Amino acid sequence: MPAQMTSRLCGAWLAVVAGCAAALLEVPARVCQAETARIAAGPLRVGIATADITLQGPVAMAGFGFRKKPSEGVVKPLTASCVLLDNTVTRVAMVAFDLCYIGQTQLADLRAAAQKAKIPPST
Fold first, then answer.
1. Phi-psi region of 20 (alpha: psi -120 to 50; beta: other; left: phi over 0)
2. What is the DSSP-derived secondary structure letter of residue 55?
3. Buried b vs exposed e over 1-11: b needs ≥16 C-beta within 10 Å?
4. I need a surface site. Which of 6, 32, 64, 78 has the fewest CB within 10 A?
């Protein structure tokens, strides 16, 4: 994946996570009553955010094997979306990209960004 794509993805992911964190909403503890009773967590806070990750200019398009030349424009912007759940004990983020795949380098960068945002790695 080109460096421009890596930088754009990581920047967009950080913007999405920051947007999630800024948009955290409190959900009454009764919604997660069993979890609250078990670990004495605070109220469940939920954040939702999206970011435009569409690259500018012509790019090679995955999933279009018959295509011999780069893209010629944008029909629909590509987005990254995130839902962040935080109950003061555990913080979990679920991120979705309008992409066919993410390379190992990009995945490592995203995991490092998650750790900076105090989101533990998945096991």
1. alpha
2. P
3. beeebbebbbe
4. 64
The pTM score is 0.61
Query: For 16-39, what is the mean pLDDT?
Result: 48
Query: How would you class 55 by CB atoms within 10 Å of its CB: exposed for 0-12, middle for 13-18, buried for 19 or more?
Result: middle
Judged against a pLDDT cut of 60, whether residue 9 lies above it is answered with no
Q: In the chain, which ranges are continuous DSSP H helix?
A: 3-22, 33-39, 104-116
Q: Which residues are bridge partners to 79 per DSSP?
A: 52
Under DSSP, is residue 53 helix (H, G, I), strand (E, B) or coil? coil
Q: Which helix (H) or strand (E) holds 81?
A: strand 79-86
- pLDDT at res. 32: 43
Assign 72 to helix, strand or coil: coil
